[in-house]
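name: query_chain
kind: protein
chains: 1
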Amino acid sequence: MAGASRSTSSLGGLKGKFSSPIAIKKARIEIVPLIDVMFFLLASFMMVSLSLQQSHTRPMELVDARQSVDGFKTDVINIGIEKDGTVSIGTNVVDRSVLINELTTRYKQNPKAPVFITGDKSAPYRSIGGVLQQVRSARFTRVSFVTQEAEKSKK
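structure:
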């Protein structure tokens, strides 16, 4: 009986379990490399998002806004309205009578394509409203107006 008690005491009182002579190390999560990777990813995504914002319309003076979001992509329809009421799709000047046919054709190609209307600050509201009506007649539902962020005045 003395031999049986001696073997159970050397095992820590547990029957059927054997201890390893190699010390068991607990896993640790290293935080510093994780933070370095996260900062690298953040900087990469910021640089990529800055390079995606490009306008594909004719240059014109835009209306100021408090907040603006740029989201130009190659599959969007950019409609520009200049000071004199001239309408362009992308960089091509289009007659107003042909605009509805062009929009209907593009709607058949991609019904979910977003439409961006860029109106010059001095463009008549009637021209912008007429273009908006034609875009709605072509059944586009994703329509946005392009603005630029207003400069904050120092007081």
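note: Residues 31-51 form the longest helix (21 residues).
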